[in-house]
Amino acid sequence: MTIARMCSPMRTWERPMDRCFRIFPCLADPGRRSSLCLKVALVTIHLVYAGVLFLFDGDLIEKTKKEPWYTALYLLLFVGTLIQYFATSLSSPGYVLDAMMTVHDRNVAYKKTPDTSSQSASSKNGSFVVSMEENLLGSSTISWSKLVSDLYPLGSSIRTWTCTYCNVEQPPRAKHCHDCDKCVLQFDHHCVWLGNCIGQGNHCKFWWYLFEETALCLWTGVLYISYLKDHITRIWWQDAILILLLITLSVWLIFLLLLLLFHSYLILTNQTTFELVRRRRIHYLRGIPERVHPFSRGVRKNLFYFCCTRSAVYRFEPLPTTQEIEEKSRPYTCSDALTCRCC
């Protein structure tokens, strides 16, 4: 009887949880449940910072009535930042398995269609396109193994680029994410706050989210400082709350600003966080000098490919040849600066 009584509260607690899991199956997964909690926490933090400001600052309400465009722009940035956050968290980083299936579907579609020499390499639904370098477009159909092997130098072992977890042949710059349990193209990092990987498909969205979040934090900090400057001696407990929030906001602002500058540098040099941090452990980067960026096409082209390429396009970059590495290792001269060699 004692054991039954001890277990009865547990049973009564499990029943509502089981019902909740049946209604919302996504909550049954601990990983997705923790990701959802982080999303709720982030939205709550944004609402607290904006709500406290409008709750305490009566002058801001009066200014809104006189100049509604000022508050409207702030609220527009506030809503846009949250939309960009969810758009980035729900976007695909570009998985290797999806790219492999796209190549397979393209080959099947080419075999079924007699005249496809002038068509682009796309999947059956047209939502994804495989973009390869010119030296890989010799034939209209190409197997995934052949495509990946052509991206590596001759003589490379297949064990070098085969994922030991997924048993999938990885193109250069791809990596297996242990949190998502999938191989990601041009893997950058796994963001805990987003609950998603950052890779080839959503790195641009992630940069814009950092930019909007930094601008929102900066604008909110200016509003907090303006209020404290005008009402620092009126109500002490309100000032204490705002000062604590402002200190926390300043720490977040510094972190976001440094992260934004760091990813801007990665974009300009066509690198990823994983390649920069684990350069000596990546087999195809070990013999390359650290100051040489093997995948960089120049600042202008790097920005073009990063900003103007659709997220639905899978891009495969072959490893540079020895001649290309030697050319990029050559020190800059005055003539290189005049000819914009870095661009």
UniProtKB/TrEMBL annotation:
Domain Palmitoyltransferase DHHC: residue ranges: 162-278
Supply the EC number(s). Answer: 2.3.1.225
Q: Which GO terms describe its biological process?
A: protein targeting to membrane
- Provide the catalytic activity annotation: L-cysteinyl-[protein] + hexadecanoyl-CoA = S-hexadecanoyl-L-cysteinyl-[protein] + CoA
Q: Looking at its record, which EC class is this enzyme? A: transferase
**Superkingdom of this protein's organism:** Eukaryota
**A single GO CC term, please?**
endoplasmic reticulum
Which residue windows are transmembrane per the record? 36-56, 68-87, 206-228, 240-262
Q: What family is it from?
A: Belongs to the DHHC palmitoyltransferase family.
Q: What is known of its domains?
A: The DHHC domain is required for palmitoyltransferase activity.
Name of the molecule in the record: S-acyltransferase
